[in-house]
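User: Before I run my own analysis I want an independent prediction to cross-check against. Here's the chain; please return only the structure tokens and, at the end, one sentence I can use as a sanity check.
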Amino acid sequence: MPFPGKPLFVLCLVVFSSLCSAQTVLKPLWQNDAFAVFPDRVVQNNRFIGKALSPTALTSNYKSPANEFLSPSVTFKFSINGKDNEMISGMDHHFVVDKGPAETPPIPFGKQLVGDRPLPDNTYLKPQTAFTINLDMRAVLQAFENQGYYTTYNGDKIYKQDFKGVYVAGSTAPLMWDFNNLANRPGLQLEDKDGDGIFRTTIMLNDPKEEKSTSAAWTLSKDLSAFPAYRSGYPLSDALYNLALEEMQKAVEPDSTFRTGKEWSGVWTRDVSYSIILSMAHLQPKVSRYSLMRKVNRNGRIIQDTGTGGAWPASSDRMIWAVAAWELYAATGDEDWLKQAYSIIRASLEDDYKVVYDPATGLVKGESSFLDWREQTYPAWMQPADIYESECLGTNAVHYQVNTVLARMAERMGDRAAAQKYTGVAQRIKEGINKYLWMPDKGYYGQYLYGRHAKILSPRSEALGEALCVLFGIAGKDREKDIIRKTPVMNFGIPCIYPQIPNIPPYHNNAVWPFVQSYWALAAARAGNEEAVLQSISAIYRPAALWGTNKENFVGSNGDFSATQINSSNMLWSLSGSIGLIHKIIFGMEFTADGLAFRPFVPAALKGGRSLKNFTYRKAVLDIELEGYGNTIRSFTLDGQPSAAIVPADLEGRHRIRIVLANNKPGGRTNTVSHYVTLPAPVVRLEGNTLSWQEVKGAVSYKLLQNGKEAARMKKPGFPVHNSACAEYGVIAVDARGVESFASEPVLVVGQKAAVVYELERAAEKASLPHQGFSGSGFVEISKAKNTTLSFPVTIAEEGVYAIDFRYANGNGPINTENKCALRTLKSGADFLGTVVLPQRGKGEWSAWGWSNAVQTTLSKGRHTLSLSFEPYNENMNGDINEALLDYVRIIKIK
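Assistant: Structure tokens:
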């Protein structure tokens, strides 16, 4: 064929090049059934596109689909004082709102309304539909007048003086199932304005004003020249890196501390600590130090963020501060900071040793790290005192690493004895995690030990805890590979927990948090799992590209940001994780006390050249080039000379680093699963000598637990019990796939001679306060000024293991936040027995009596003098208010 003329040849070449370019763009770097990631864009459901126009500009057409196809069938339930106390779990009101405005008839509190009816296909809730809800409270109000209290379905008493209001929870926004936060949502409180006993509220369903999209475009508006400049052959990665750097600058407050997020002002211990570990230690060292010191109290202890039951010790993950402090030292080499941090961590940890460390298991008590909305990850029956007694994966991983880094600090401080002590504690925690939380049949760790007198393991996965056990070396080489390969992940990322809890809206339940995904990515890189690394990077890039910001969380099942209970743009730990993908995975940076090591991990799909220039490490400035893919270094040069893949800590001035990878493919698999919800936990009661519960819809069998062990399997509810001694029972519902619900609230069956009760008003002057619901002739007030030591005699009939707990009230704050948890030390004579934790039970609800945790101890036959004392290590996070009311003590022989 004759050679074409020059103009035609050039035209053909241009067309061919364009086609090749189009093919390159059309080939995804990663994809699944929900979305695909390309070099310059993310495409979701073949509908939404987030595209990098350049390294400094993004555009997106994303609109939240959350309200497009809402069912007109609305499910809801009423709540007195913001608690789930109207009807048994799973029994709700149902009403069809197919025409607006709509209004319910007056619904008697505690009596189910079933207003469902068949609807034609493709019937959806119309936008801006007014819905009036009417609640008949006359029976409740009459009970208040006649007997001073109303008895709920489960036997709890709500006293007239403790009645704060009635609210509505539900499934369709602005309704929500987060009972503890109902009081914070306008419109969800019902009011009786005309005094007829019918409480009403009108809410707007499918409100078009709700946030359905974020910014349609992002263009860089900050000067990034002071920070490391990243360039690669992937425009999307470059743009998202620059977006994160810009949002990092926006997250620095005028006082040089970090702002947690656009919607979250102030410094939070866990948020700032996890962010510092991910990337802020080396990018913003001064701001990191100022922020960490903002979370130290006047006694030189680390502050636990406000949370369940009044914070520490029901929550005990404040010690992640120590891991962040070590990362800051490793990044800066600041010896003054090392000394200051060492003193703070030691003092805080010594308190924890006495209050939250369990000598029986070697584990640490307290709420799962960062998962601090109790109903989002715990059974509904668990009170804050129960959560304090739980022993959780993530929190234990944190405490293992805290003791490990404190041992390193002690070594550098020349205190070898202390280093040995902390290393020993860390080893005991590691052994406890692997003994009590590992699930060999699943290949990953369980969520937590829970229960009361006998604990069982929740078999749900817990993403952050799984990742930390890999990153901190708790799992070991073989198990860490199993964890990354077998832990459940979903199409949009790794969910905080799996499977999901029924009737709980997305937030920690059914949700992905980008910062957790970043830790999972780091763990995947450590375990050498290429598929998990690429999947994680994609799961972080998708939301940021579509929304033009680093959101805090999104719904695990559909990837949308608008349906979670609370969310924020410009979220510190999310943006820190995005930066960490580049610095700590792609370039593989690891800060140590003696230098900066490099262990790059570049999936083959992201192969090619890339650079990171103007990277400040201590007194050096590094310009880094990286070539190839894989996780094996072929060559590493410093200023053109072959070198070990570590920059010494004393390097100064500007230097060039070039890393060439060996183009190896580590391989690896992941366990991608569909959204799955377990059955609700049975609600079990003791009726005479029979354990009874209602059938759980969908259950094919029930597992009966006796003292934490499986005692029987049955197809139908009901089980006879005949115990002369003490025994604790629970029931788990099992579905057709063999997936288990949470265990029911334990039912304690106590023989006549197994329990001793002592009314505490016999041990001290009874309080002259107008509260109700106590037993005996009164109750005792304890505070930092009153009854700081409370002694009482008990007579034990026979030697054995006893559980000692206290009936108490604490109305200093709500059940889900603030910082006024009360705690005391339990002693027998001078011997320390354990810590008694008395968490908040409702703001102003001083007649809402409940049980403390139970301290288990061996007591000999005969007379003992027990005491509750306020010790220095019993200081809570409030510092001023540490008080409760005590009704009586119960001493039960359990073994």
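Sanity check: The chain has 16 helices and 54 strands.
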